[in-house]
Amino acid sequence: MMLIDCPYCGPRNETEFGYGGEAHVAYPEDPYALSDAKWAEFLFYRDNPKGDFAERWVHNGGCRKWFNAVRDTITYQFKATYPAGSPRPNVSGGSQ
Amino acid sequence: MADVQELRRSPLVNRTQEMEQASGSAVSIREVRFTTQVGLRAEPGTPGYVALATHLGGLPERVGDVVGDVDTTAVLWLSPDEFLAVNEPDSGLAETLTDVLGDHSGQVLELSANRAFIEISGPASELVLRKSCPLDLHPRTWKVNQAYATEIAQTPVILWKVNEFTWRIAPRTSFADHVVSWLLDAMLEFSHREV
């Protein structure tokens, strides 16, 4: 069982959490100005990096708050968790 | 007109006798009926938060914290901006807090029918709960008058340690029956005299 460090509740079992895709995807400033292709890109296109990835998670089994996490997609290691709305922290020791 | 209060039934009224029979000196179980539960939402630092905190003698600030206690009004931490106030039946707490909040941004919601409260007490109560709770229930981690949202009987509950040997378990009412069945089964081994 993986432990995920909720920024509000502390470390809890992974079964209490839900996944919410890539973090820091900003809503377009003027959605009406976008072409269909650009709009589809905003809605559906996501990074799929090998290594550190900033993601949204929700703590369903506790405080029910959304937060962000930097997770290594190779090792599954959670390098940092931080409240939604905060900038992505710099984490050192990234995978190769 | 019939008095509505006379007609209401608590979610575990059908299990009363079973719970009485299963209770012993090591561990006992009962339902705490018709507690008043009020959901509070207010962002810390806002005027609404300050108004509620002033009236209630503070609001819990971090996970596990409880302001007040089981004998008066207790406010449980649910998330940084969400709290659950609990006190005795028909206390009118929701009306009072609605007035306290006034026009400030925030929420006061009467949630008395949302959760059932099951009280499990006795020296073996921690051992019973340990069977199915993923959190560390040891007294060195879980102090008296702390409450956490967690899972018991594979059901989301709020678990509140009201004193050294007494815990209150608050599942949603529709899960209460299942949680009681689970606890009665877990209590079985403690109902016999020690050899």
Defining key terms:
heterodimer, A: 96 residues, mainly beta, Folate-binding fold, four-stranded antiparallel beta sheet, two-stranded antiparallel ribbon, globular, B: 195 residues, alpha+beta, five-stranded antiparallel beta sheet
> Strand fraction band of chain B?
25-35%
Question: How do the strands of the widest beta sheet of chain B line up side by side?
Answer: 1-7-10-9-8
Straight-line distance between termini of chain A: 25 Å
Cα-based radius of gyration of chain B, to the nearest Å: 17 Å
The count of strands of chain B amounts to 10
**Spatial separation of the terminal alpha carbons of chain B:** 57 Å
CATH level-two architecture of chain A: 2-Layer Sandwich
- Poorly predicted regions of chain A are none
The major beta sheet of chain A can be summarized as: 4 strands, antiparallel
What is the H/E order of chain B? HHEEHEEEHEEHEEEH
- Summarize the amount of helix of chain B as a percent range: 25-40%
Topology:
The complex is a heterodimer of chains A (96) and B (195).
Chain A lengths: L2 E4 L3 E4 L3 E6 L13 H9 L7 E8 L6 E7 L5 E6 L13
Antiparallel strand pairs in A: 1-2, 3-4, 4-5, 5-6
Chain B lengths: L3 H4 L8 H7 L5 E5 L3 E6 L5 H10 L9 E2 L6 E6 L2 E6 L5 H9 L5 E4 L6 E5 L3 H6 L15 E7 L2 E9 L2 E6 L1 H15 L8
Antiparallel strand pairs in B: 1-7, 2-5, 2-6, 3-4, 4-5, 7-10, 8-9, 9-10
